[in-house]
Design brief:
- With 97 residues, the chain is mainly α.
- The protein has one domain.
- The chain is built from 4 helices and no strands.
């Protein structure tokens, strides 16, 4: 008698997609352009936050989905904003007056 039949089968969910996107963004930072690579990495993190909020956790979900979604989205948003300030320095002048 095996006890493994009682356990639900764990899936990876969207984790491989997010991992590939993050790796490509980091490679873009190193080999192409810092600003656009940072922007893409922030977008990937925000996508990961949205997917986690939608309930896709997979085998790596160890905390609550709400905490993961907020953390991923906040870091992604911060990366996107910083990448935009690096790409377009005049945006700072529009905000800080």
């Amino acid at each position: 008698m095996s006890l493994n039949h009682d356990r639900p089968r764990e899936s990876w969910g969207p984790y491989p997609l997010i991992l590939v996107g993050a790796v490509l963004a980091v490679l873009g930072i190193f080999f192409a352009d810092l600003e656009w690579g940072g922007f893409v990495l922030g977008a990937v993190l925000m996508l990961a936050g949205a997917l986690r909020f939608a309930g896709y956790g997979g085998a790596l979900a160890v905390r609550g989905g709400k905490l993961d979604a907020i953390t991923l989205s906040a870091f992604g948003f911060a990366l996107v904003v910083n990448a935009m300030f690096l790409q377009f320095p005049t945006l700072k002048d529009l905000i800080v007056r």
